[in-house]
């Protein structure tokens, strides 16, 4: 197995296996030896790519944030001149990302180890670009007179919190079974938009 696997393939295998184990067993139960057993390599092979399990965890968060950014950028690009439509698309894209990438989402936002090395500043700055995309839509909406905000970054954080709440409840299956998930998502997005829209900004904002 080791002879047939390139360094890039092995690194990918380590990350994918770690992602599954983190979600399945939690951070505290994760160890380099456990990962090694799962992939059929020695722990030494893993240390050639990652210093420790914190480095693995941080890399997975960073990967997830990059994937989320790609998703948001694609949604942003569909509505460059219409901030209302753009923000709606961003909200929908965020929720869809969480539901279609549950392992990444849980690692990014829902695992909180008590003891873990501080998340690297360079990775934090990259992660913050996701918030910047939302804030830019709000800023553009304010500039065009269709949205209101005292601070676009704060408004973007409130939007993020609302979307995260929806994703978390849907992932945990804590939604009333009488409510269709599509209906909930639609209403969450509509409610989120109403929080920043000026009533006179558009006749049909949602």
Describe what this molecule looks like in 3D:
Helix content is 68%, strand content 0%. It has 206 residues and is mainly alpha-helical. The protein has 2 domains: 1-50, Homeodomain-like (Arc Repressor Mutant, subunit A, Orthogonal Bundle); 61-194, Orthogonal Bundle (Tetracycline Repressor, domain 2). Helix 7 (121-143) crosses helix 8 (152-172). The radius of gyration is 20 Å and the shape is elongated. The termini are far apart.
- CATH homologous superfamily classification of the largest domain: Tetracycline Repressor, domain 2
**Total count of domains:** 2
What is the averaged pLDDT score? 93
Major pleated sheet: none
SS-derived structural category: mainly alpha
The succession of helices and strands, N to C, reads HHHHHHHHH
Which stretches are low in confidence, meaning pLDDT under 50 for 5 or more residues running? 201-205
Shape: elongated
What distance lies between the first and last C-alpha atoms, to the nearest angstrom? 54 Å
CATH class of the largest domain: Mainly Alpha
Q: How much of the sequence is in beta strands?
A: under 5%
Please give the radius of gyration in angstroms.
Answer: 20 Å
Share of helix among residues? Answer: 55-70%
What CATH calls the topology of the largest domain is: Tetracycline Repressor, domain 2
Q: Describe the oligomeric state of these chains in a short phrase.
A: single chain
* CATH architecture annotation of the largest domain: Orthogonal Bundle
Number of strands: 0
- The helix count comes to 9
């Amino acid at each position: 197995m080791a002879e047939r696997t390139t360094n890039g393939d092995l690194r990918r295998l380590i990350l994918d296996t770690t992602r599954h184990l983190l979600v399945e067993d939690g951070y505290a139960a994760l160890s380099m030896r456990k990962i090694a057993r799962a992939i059929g390599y020695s722990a030494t092979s893993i240390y050639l790519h990652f210093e420790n399990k914190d480095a693995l965890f941080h890399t997975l968060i960073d990967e997830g944030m990059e994937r989320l950014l790609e998703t948001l950028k694609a949604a942003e690009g569909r509505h460059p001149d219409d901030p209302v439509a753009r923000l709606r698309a961003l909200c929908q894209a965020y929720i869809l990302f969480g539901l279609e990438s549950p392992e990444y989402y849980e690692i990014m936002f829902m695992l909180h180890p008590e003891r873990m090395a501080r998340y690297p500043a360079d990775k934090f700055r990259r992660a913050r670009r996701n918030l910047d995309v939302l804030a830019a839509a709000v800023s553009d909406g304010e500039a065009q007179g269709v949205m209101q905000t005292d601070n676009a970054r704060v408004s973007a954080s409130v939007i993020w919190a609302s979307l995260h709440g929806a994703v978390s409840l849907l992932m945990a299956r804590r939604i009333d079974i009488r409510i269709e998930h599509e209906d909930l998502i639609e209403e969450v997005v509509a409610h989120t938009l109403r929080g920043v829209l000026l009533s006179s900004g558009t006749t049909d904002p949602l």
